[in-house]
Sequence to fold (376 residues):
Amino acid sequence: MFANLKVSEIAPNPEQPRKFFDEAQQEELTASIKENGLLQPVVVRPVEGAEVPYMLIAGERRWRSCQAAGLEVIPAKVIEGASEEKAYVLSIAENVNRSDMTIMEEAGAYADLKAAGWTPAKIAKQFGKTETHITWRLGLLTLRPEVAEMVDKGQIKNNLAWHIAQLNPANQMVAAMRYVRGDFDTEAEAQHFANGLKMMEQQTSLTNEQPPTEEEAKKHKAAKAKAKDGLGKAEEVLIPLLEGLAEKKPEDLAVILGDDLARHLRVVTRLHAKVQMVKNILSKAQGIQRAMEAEFNKAAVEVQQEAAAKKADEEAKPETAEKPAEPQVTDRGEAKAAAKPRPAAKKAPAKPAARTTATTKAPARRAPAKKAEAAK
Fold:
């Protein structure tokens, strides 16, 4: 049923799938409502025992703008007996196809339904999407917050975001930052780089840890030479031929090629298909190569950090060599220099045992020379 409700009688849904409301668009809607009133009613459901009797199902932007426009009463469609799950589904249905609902908000909404026991197939049927669409959106929820924010802002496109989401958190940041700062000419290149990083995560290395055998090295060298020779022939023969054909007008080629025109068209069509296929393969290879370089650079930094940490530990260890003795202070307050190695002294004449024992402990203060003689 429809009813005119006070704005103060309606509360927003805390489980609203949309969390972000564009400020400029909100101001435009407020201005429109001030001028024309609310043309589309909000959708609410009654909540028994609540401080505010109605909760929004759909139309929070309109409700906010009505408040800002100073409206006290607004039209509303009241849905009786709607459960929380039903209300949530209706809220998603109202927002899911709007351009201002972010992709991460959409993914979060589907995740809530999945947590409630909905399968991707059921979600897809409910909202008129494909199951693949739902699965890809759910896959975005593994993105770290910083990357998810880039996706919401449109800095990273949806398809690339899914490929980045397959990586561990550290590599997600590597792939996202390199794309945002413009390291790749196309989105496809960025995807191939992300896929290369994924391969690096799944394998300890993309190359053999052991050096190649002599036979393997020869094969590798021969394959490289053959590829280089093939490129050389293409540059010498094929490219000039195609360039020559491209310079001609269609009416001229119709006369020049004559009966060979159909054959030229077949051959060039095949070449185009092969070139597209090889270009895609080479782009993937470049992504892997870049991922290998990134992994190598990361490993190099780790080695440097390990070496620096080892050096710091060694410097922190106490020195094994004996340190110079601390200077001693005499009874006259003068500091004595640390003992230095001296040449071996001549052996003193033997003294009585008792005398030797008595003199093993040094006196705390040295007695003056005269008194010492008197004491003997």
Q: What stands out?
A: The mean pLDDT is 76. The longest strand covers residues 73-78. Residues 27 and 65 are 8 Å apart (CA to CA). Residues 261-316 form the longest helix (56 residues).
